[in-house]
Amino acid sequence: MASINKAIIIGNLGADPELRYTNSGKAVANFRVATNERWKDDSGEVQERTEWHQIVAWGKLGETCGKFLKKGRPVYIEGRLQTRSWEDQSGNKRYTTEIVAQNMQMLGSRGDSGDAGHSAWESRGGDSQEVPEVPVSSAGNNTDDDLPF
User: How far is Cα 63 from Cα 67, in angstroms, rounded to an integer?
Assistant: First the structure.
């Protein structure tokens, strides 16, 4: 039986990404994205919970994230969950679960700092993808010539 490991989130960046390079020269960007959940409790009061997601983007996608993403910006992230462990300074085993990004879309317009709008820029992991120079509709790059009818 096949298994699936896929995470999709839409949220806002908590800080500018931290872009670094490994000893072999591969880019890696680390950043956090907040998602919010709202509901009414039994007494009718609106409750809200914010969940913070640790994101890691490698290679060209990492460079793109480091260059274009900014604190407060709405973003779509698609990737896989990964849990890592390490020993802290006291010798205790620590764990973290993060989303390893495979696809990223910046939401809103280029001038937006936090409001989701009607345009998006998309970047996928891999060495051949670049961020488009102009915004495209969030529905994709369809033009009238691409319609199947």
Answer: 6
Residue 85 pairs with which residues in a beta bridge? 95
CA–CA separation, 7 vs 30, rounded Å? 16
**Cα angle value 59/22/74 (rounded, 5°):** 45
Answer yes or no: is pLDDT of 11 > 50: yes
Residue-wise pLDDT tens digits, 65-101: 999 999 999 999 999 999 999 899 999 999 999 999 9
Q: Give me the residue label for tokens 């020993």.
A: 87
In order, the DSSP letters of 5-35 are: --EEEEEEESS--EEEE-TT--EEEEEEEEE
* CA dist., res. 79 & res. 60, Å (int): 15
Q: What is the pLDDT of residues 109-123, one digit of tens each?
A: 665 544 444 345 556
Give, for 59, the enclosing helix (H) or strand (E).
Answer: helix 59-68
Long-range contacts of 133-140 (CB under 8 A, 24+ apart): 135/109, 135/110, 138/105, 138/107
